[in-house]
Structure formats: structure tokens, C-alpha cells
Design brief:
63% of the residues lie in helices and 0% in strands. The radius of gyration is 20 Å and the shape is elongated. It folds into two domains: 55 residues, Homeodomain-like (Arc Repressor Mutant, subunit A), CATH 1.10.10.60; 157 residues, Tetracycline Repressor, domain 2 (Orthogonal Bundle), CATH 1.10.357.
């Protein structure tokens, strides 16, 4: 009889990688720590993944699966613009829950190089070589399609529009994780930027602001998480 899925050593290594990443940060992802986490030898990493780069990619895939589930849990309504804004808040909440994890997922930090996940979004139609990344992004694309179908913004290719919104959101949350926007950045920066972009894409400002207010009034919508408290070290003497 075959072992249960949770007994599969490959699965155990991926789960151990996720635990170490979220508990101790990317620097903990090394063969020795992973092997110790599951009670195996370091050769297990090379046997099942060909090395640490393969294990890192598998951890990234798993984290994007969890990210996609987090976005999918956002309730969809009959207002696709409000839904897009709600997805943005859910995206932000996932990042702020563990900024180190997010930076590792997108390849900004790590204990050594792992395979790049990005590719030409305009040429390929999807942002990554990993299907888990593309599935998460597709939720934004599908919402943009709904917004276009509702006549709220100009019709056209939805992928570049979703990429514009994603770029804005990604840049905001990365800056927020280093303490740039303080406690009210969502209200003073992110929400106005989203409205301005929607208006630029063809929505009426009054309609965009109404969708924003309906999101704030919806008890099932994700509430903005508080901005992170960034610890600042001492400045070096000059």
C-alpha cells in the first residue's frame, strides 16, 4: 500500500520549507535546516528537487497556491469595481501578514538564487513560467473583464489593464512594508490612486467613488490591515 500524501518526502520538504520561511525568514531555507525539520538527511533535498534551487521553486509554487486561495476567498458581488478594490485589499493583507515571505515569492530576497519566475507579460499573456503565479494574477484579469463587460471602463485587452492595476498595488505594498506611508496610506494614497487609474481607464469618477464607498460599507469585504510597524536600526556614524 502506498503512503498517505502527508508521508510523501517531497511534500514534507515543501511543507517544511514553508514553515521555515514563514517562521524564520528566507535565510532559514538551507538543506541542513530543511533536513532537520523532517528528520532526514540533506541528500533528501537533492534526491527530490535536484538541489536547493528546485526546493526554492517548489516553496514559491506552494506560497502562490495559498496566495491564490486567499484572493479567491474574497466574496464577489454585482459591482465588479468594488470587487477589484476588495481584491487589492486582500492582496495587501497577504503581503503585510509576512513581508519577508512576499519578497521571497517574487524573487527579491532569498538565501541564494532561485529560478526567476517572471516573463514578458505583454508577449506571453501571463506574468510567469509558474502556473500558480498565473492563476493568482488571472483573478485580477477576470475581474477586469467583468468591469469591461459592465461598461465601467473602455473595452480592450484585459491583461494590460490588470497589469497596470497590479503594478500600482505591488509598488504601494512594497513601499508600505518599509514604512513609507504610515497608518493612513490606504486612505490617502492607495484608494485615490485606484480611483484615478479607473477614471483614466474610462470610469466616471462618481461611479468609482461610489464603488469605493460600497466596499467600505460591505461587512463581508476585507478590512484594511493596519500598516506594519517598521523597526529602524541605528544610523551609522559618519
Amino acid at each position: 500500500m502506498g503512503g498517505r500524501p502527508e508521508e510523501d518526502p517531497r511534500r514534507r520538504l515543501v511543507d517544511a520549507g514553508v514553515r521555515l520561511l514563514e517562521r524564520d525568514g528566507p535565510e532559514a531555507l538551507n538543506a541542513r535546516r530543511l533536513a532537520a525539520e523532517i528528520g532526514a538527511s540533506t541528500m533528501a533535498v537533492y534526491t527530490h528537487f535536484g538541489g536547493m534551487a528546485g526546493l526554492h521553486e517548489a516553496v514559491v509554487q506552494e506560497e502562490f497556491v495559498r496566495f491564490g486561495r486567499h484572493l479567491h476567498a474574497v466574496a464577489r458581488t454585482d459591482d465588479p469595481v468594488a470587487d477589484l478594490l476588495a481584491l487589492g485589499l486582500a492582496y495587501r493583507d497577504f503581503v503585510l501578514a509576512d513581508p519577508r515571505r512576499y519578497r521571497f515569492m517574487i524573487g527579491l530576497t532569498g538565501p541564494g538564487a532561485h529560478p526567476p519566475i517572471g516573463r514578458d507579460l505583454v508577449g506571453a499573456g501571463t506574468p510567469a513560467a509558474l502556473p500558480e503565479v498565473n492563476a493568482a494574477f488571472e483573478q485580477h484579469v477576470e475581474t477586469v473583464r467583468r468591469i469591461m463587460a459592465a461598461g465601467r471602463i473602455r473595452r480592450g485587452a484585459p491583461v494590460p489593464v490588470a497589469a497596470q492595476l497590479w503594478s500600482m498595488l505591488h509598488g504601494f505594498v512594497l513601499l508600505e512594508t518599509i514604512g513609507v506611508f504610515g497608518h493612513d496610506g490606504v486612505v490617502t494614497v492607495l484608494a485615490p490612486a485606484a480611483v484615478n487609474l479607473l477614471v483614466g481607464l474610462g470610469d466616471r469618477r462618481e461611479a468609482a467613488e461610489t464603488s469605493l464607498r460600497s466596499l467600505a460599507a460591505n461587512p463581508k469585504a476585507p478590512a484594511p490591515a493596519p500598516a506594519p510597524q517598521v523597526r529602524r536600526g541605528r544610523r551609522p556614524r559618519t
